[in-house]
Amino acid sequence: MNSIAIDGPSGAGKSSLSRKIAEELGYIYVDTGALYRSIGLAVLQAGKNTKKADEIEALLPQIDLALRHVDGEQRVFLGSEDVSEAIREEAVSMAASDVSAHPAVRAFLLETQRRLARENNVIMDGRDIGTVVLPNANIKIYLTATVEDRAMRRTLQLREAGKQADYETVKKDVEQRDYNDSHRAAAPLKQADDAVLVDTTGLEFEQSLALLLSLIKERLIDAT
To answer: Which of 24, 70, 134, 158 could bridge 165 with an S-S bond, Cβ 3.0-4.6 Å?
Structure first.
């Protein structure tokens, strides 16, 4: 199985680009946020308290979590139940926030992500995929752009969604997120030694997508 790890700072376009690349290659896109939401939903369905670590830890071995392609679309399953829509409910969002704070959940999902990579061709994005989650990934990419570029993209996204967004305020938020991600004690954001640096400053989405696909396909061919 092939695994592609894409790390990088906030606003670099990792998730949107990874999802499109997965569609193009027929890979599983591992949405870490969806995994945490699924755990939150499982805890709610079991009638457990999302803030109690002991109750959650006892439940984890019973959770069968999977990402599957169904009719060309990636879906999230708990056992045989498709929970792709259910995990987007507000109550589940709150539950996901609670459970993500528990070390046992983080350890459980670390193994889940690694299992998905063992059993499927995957593309996974985050802050520590190439350094911690999948240190032996076939392809590692560190995706970045200037703070100014990433802040402008985010500002436009918010405005397109009908929300007020001030560029300077967004820029400060991006800078603070960069600092927090790179200075956190657990698995800080950094480029893996063997990752390819890809800077998409000034590029449109389709240009960035073409650049990444070309790089990935070339490396996949070289690996065969």
So the answer is: 158
Burial of 157 (0-12, 13-18, 19+ CB in 10 A): middle
Look at residues 193, 189, 219, 11 and name the one whose alpha carbon lies nearest to residue 123: 219
pTM equals: 0.77
CA dist., res. 117 & res. 69, Å (int): 15
Pairing of strands 65-70, 73-78: antiparallel
224 falls in which pLDDT band (50, 70, 90)? low
Whole-angstrom CA distances from 211 to 99, 134, 140, 154 are 37, 23, 14, 21
Asked whether the beta carbons of 144 and 12 are under 8 A apart, the reply is yes
User: What span, in angstroms and rounded, lies between the C-alpha atoms of 101 and 84?
Assistant: 22
Model confidence pLDDT, tens digit, residues 10-45:
889 888 899 999 999 999 888 877 888 899 999 999
